[in-house]
Amino acid sequence: MGLTSLDNPEQFPVKCCREELPLEDVVSTMGTRNRKRYISRTEEQAVPADERIYCPRAKCGQWIHPNSKGPRPGTRLCTQCRAKVCCACREFAHGPWPCADDESLKTVLDMAKDNKWQRCTKCHYMVEKVDGCNHILCRCGYHFWYV
Question: Which residues form a coiled coil (predicted)?
Fold first, then answer.
């Protein structure tokens, strides 16, 4: 159950009869790697969805812990790929320039519009509907409609 819940936000955290199982009981059955993943996911879920920051690097997407400080105020460092992320716009850190001047973000958003991609309104993660219904469950746990 614990391993399944790591990959499915609907099944996280592990519950029995609608009651959340104690963290210690769940992780005691896991190997070191999955134990760390489960604890990290628990910490992630404790942060309100609209306050979570994820790495903007397409091949990473790792949740960035609030205690992960970046090299400058207002930034965080992705522990997975070492990308520096702006806490305000949640894109790659852009030094002293204001968020609105991020040309690469504008390019990606234009590409998203052309390809009919959408962003989660809570965490701003980009999603693409491949098939199925228009209901989307984002990795942050937020439900929205793909329109």
Answer: none
